[in-house]
Amino acid sequence: MAEHSPDTIAYEKAAYSHQETKNEETAHEAAERGHVATDKYGQPLVHFDKAAESRLRLKIDLYIVPTVSLLYLFCFIDRANIGNAKLAGFEKDLGLEGYDYNKVLSVFYISYIIFEIPSNVACKWIGPGWFIPAISLGFGICSVCTAFVHNIHEASGVRFLLGMFEAGMMPGIAYYLSRWYRRSELAFRLSLYIVMAPLAGAFGGLLASGILKLSHFGGLHTWRMIFAIEGIITIGISLLSFITLTDRPATARWLTQEEKDLAIVRVKSERVSTTEVLDKLDTAKLLRGIISPVTLGTAFIFLLNNITVQGLAFFAPTIVKTIYPKSTVVSQQLHTVPPYVVGAFFTVLFPFLSWRMDRRSIFFIISAPIMMAGYIMFLASTSPHVRYGATFLIASGAFAYGALCNAQVAANVVSDTARSSAIGTDVMFGNIGGLISTWSFLPFDGPDYHIGNGLNLATSSTIFVCSILLYAFMLADNKRREKRDVDGELEGLSVKQIQDLDWRHPAFRWKP
């Protein structure tokens, strides 16, 4: 479903409150395609009916969020089930020794990092309504193929392809949702699919333990059944999503024309000097999204955070095994579930509060000490119960960053193109952290894993410091921007030149 610009949208109107006729006409004209929905100082020209907005938002929630959440659930399961397979004999059957398991994990992140930004640009170009189901189908097939590998080379090849397909998933969904929601609403909606990461840890453990109770699946046994069955489920969901996912508000069959107009203009009204919601791919805007100081600062925080998040996904079963070495494999799988459930609660709670407050940076600062406390407990105690309790704190602080970081970079650029590259950059940095995580828990470091846990204590402490510095920068720079002469700086510039300014526009303000 290819994108076109100007937008293939007949008329961008809005539901607005009844004011005097002259004001209504001005607002209506501002909402038309080719016209701005804000004045040159960034103030919206359109007044909205709050009840109509609320009804529209609920409708979008019910039609869009469940599908992308389910896709992301199995995306994360297909990525992280290798941790469950390890407990069920993956290493032994493939003859992996020493650092071979870490190498197999690393290959996934190499392709993931390489294809991150290109995938999000492709998502914009092709259209998320087709792109997201297509890559979901790709990684579902790769998961099934993993059931048939017999050595490290075959396993590494399939994991490389898995990373290539999954690279576009997290940033693609984040970019897709930014087409439908306001800045303040986005973090909470992102959390509703990102919460599938900790739930995948919980559900993945339950599903793996259930699958392992089967005697066989066709000619497959033990860990091979995990990859095959979970991959087949992913393929089925991705085929359905080709039908259920709607590319953008203008093509949504389940919205009335008035609702389509409202959906478009309420997003447009938050973007200074924007005349079209879905703009053409533009190199200047792509670079604006990548080199924004808030994008880079947030992406670095997400990199550090992902060392913890991805480390938990891959090594939680191994860590639980060291805490409860005498338990059965199924019991060890089940012990990985409760920390993820608690983590899932905080993954939704913090972004929900972020939505109500229209703030994100403060929750960066709050979450970091929770992770720090967990790693301090793990390092300071040898008690199995204390260490198990520490995994609850770590999961509680770590998982909310996925929604908050993507919402932060999306809120702090203007154009659709810049938003796609900013989110792609954020997630690319995050997966560099994922690559580091594959080498943070090494075989010789067990069972206490002082290096891995010490590294994660250092990263969570750095997140705390960087979050405070980024917040301070945004507040200080906003004060400097208050003194800029908007009229003087924009004088003589064409409409395209003004739009290409993006976050450099003198009326733009950072949204912490």
Summarize the entry for a quick read:
The chain is mainly α.
Keywords:
512 residues; mainly alpha; Growth Hormone, Chain: A; 22 helices; globular; disordered N terminus
Describe this structure in words.
This protein starts with 20 loop residues before the first helix and ends in an 11-residue tail after the last helix. It has a single domain (49-254, 268-504), classed as Growth Hormone, Chain: A, CATH 1.20.1250. By secondary structure, the chain is mainly alpha-helical. The chain contains 22 helices and no strands. The relative contact order is 0.14. It has helices at 21-31, 50-87, 90-94, 100-126, 128-146, 152-166, 169-178, 183-194, 196-211, 223-244, 257-268, 283-291, 293-323, 329-335, 337-357, 361-380, 384-398, 401-411, 416-437, 450-482, 486-490, 495-501. Mean pLDDT is 82; it is low at 1-32.
The overall number of domains is 1
List unreliable stretches of 5+ residues. 1-32
Supply the number of helical segments.
Answer: 22
Let me know the average pLDDT.
82
Tell me the number of strands: 0
Q: Can you identify the CATH class?
A: Mainly Alpha
Name the CATH superfamily assignment: MFS general substrate transporter like domains
Q: How would you spell out the order of helices and strands? A: HHHHHHHHHHHHHHHHHHHHHH
How much beta, percentage-wise? under 5%
CATH topological fold name: Growth Hormone, Chain: A
Structural class determined from secondary elements: mainly alpha
Q: What is the rounded distance between the termini?
A: 34 Å
**CATH architectural designation:** Up-down Bundle
